[in-house]
Amino acid sequence: KVFGFTFKLNLSTRPEEGYLGDIETWNNAEDQLKTALNNSGRPWVLNPGDGAFYGPKIDITIQDALRRNHQCATIQLDFQLPKQFDLTYFDEKGEKQRPVMIHRAVLGSVERMTAILTESFGGKWPFWLSPRQAKIITVHDSMNDYAQDVKKRIF
Predict the structure, then answer these.
(1) Phi, psi (degrees; rounded to nearest 5) at 103
(2) Tens-place pLDDT, residues 61-81
(3) Which of 32, 34, 112, 153 sits a CA distance of 20 to 30 A from 125?
């Protein structure tokens, strides 16, 4: 909403081959993500077999100025790597538990997001996002020294 993009939500599920873990754990993870997507109140699309080898994921795609879709954000549930690394914690009862690892990328790659924003805004970024928020311009050479003083104070 802040950037003005339309976005789509996708649920990518267990790949056919090469995945870690058992089907029951995968089904549990996929069900949790389905519940989260349903609770969002937004439409979403199932992407069968497109999950990571360690768990299912929610992918968020946005459209650029040319209406091409790009995956930017992703949230992935990983029940497998905590087992692989033998990660544990103690719950409030003092019992050992296995955590769930959450992989996330809010904007995807910084480079991709910067390119999409630049293209989307046609190079004219909104003030709050612009890397250059002030420019000092003199109307006469006699003001150059004063302009340098202003520059030192604000930059």
Answers:
(1) -95, 135
(2) 998 888 888 888 999 999 999
(3) 153
pTM for the structure as a whole: 0.74
Would you state the pLDDT for residue 1? 67
3: helix, coil or strand? coil
More confident site: 66 or 149: 149
pLDDT in tens, 87-119: 999 999 999 999 999 999 988 888 888 888 888
Q: Residue 131: its pLDDT value, please?
A: 78
Nearest to 5 by CA among 76, 60, 79: 60
For strands 57-63 and 7-12, give the pairing. antiparallel
Beta strands in the chain (DSSP E): 7-12, 44-47, 57-63, 69-78, 89-90, 96-97, 101-105
Can you list the alpha helix ranges (DSSP code H) found in 21-142? 23-40, 81-84, 110-120
Q: Any idea where the domains of the chain sit in the sequence?
A: 7-124, 127-155
Decide if 113 contacts 89 (C-beta within 8 A): no
Maximum separation of any 2 CA atoms in the chain, in Å? 77
